[in-house]
């Protein structure tokens, strides 16, 4: 039995969750772990001198729990409740991949935490220009809600900080333009993962 661990990281509102869900429908034996499920409760998230809750940093997340969840999945992917029926429109190249299990890990801060970096088979990073990201973010409802100035004061600067760290230290990251259509992004990542599956089976 082989496992393929796919990272789907990047900017807030970049389309990570949507892309992960679509890939899950198309790939055999595929499961998703979402970083958003590991946020600490609001009372444990630090507040800075401006009154901003510092959600867009690693300290706002139970990262050790997240790593543990991924390791648990890797130990017994077949018992994780993963759907094993034939995916929609499966290519012939995907037939006979019963022995391969795929985990998509999606989140905004995946590649800046060392214990995760030894796990990835493939890493994708969705980007957006500032204006588009701000526009999309303004249409979403968060708990707790974004306070005035929060995007410019915390969210965007943290995205740039972690993206710069990644560009300095991260190799083998595929950058994706989040302004492209969902179909285009899906097609690009799907065909790339299919190539990885073929390699695994060789």
Automatic annotation (TrEMBL):
Pathway: Cofactor biosynthesis; NAD(+) biosynthesis
Residues in the signal sequence: none
A Pfam match: AAA_18
GO annotations of cellular component type: cytosol
UniProt feature coiled coil, ranges: none
Keyword field: ATP-binding, Kinase, Magnesium, Metal-binding, Nucleotide-binding, Pyridine nucleotide biosynthesis, Transferase
Source superkingdom: Eukaryota
Annotated CDD domains: NRK1
UniProt-recorded Gene Ontology molecular function terms: ATP binding; metal ion binding; nicotinate riboside kinase activity; ribosylnicotinamide kinase activity
UniProt GO BP: NAD+ metabolic process; pyridine nucleotide biosynthetic process
Keyword Repeat attached: no
Catalytic activity annotation: beta-nicotinamide D-riboside + ATP = beta-nicotinamide D-ribonucleotide + ADP + H(+); beta-D-ribosylnicotinate + ATP = nicotinate beta-D-ribonucleotide + ADP + H(+)
PANTHER family, sorted: URIDINE KINASE
Protein family: Belongs to the uridine kinase family. NRK subfamily.
Protein name: NRK1 kinase
Gene: Nmrk1
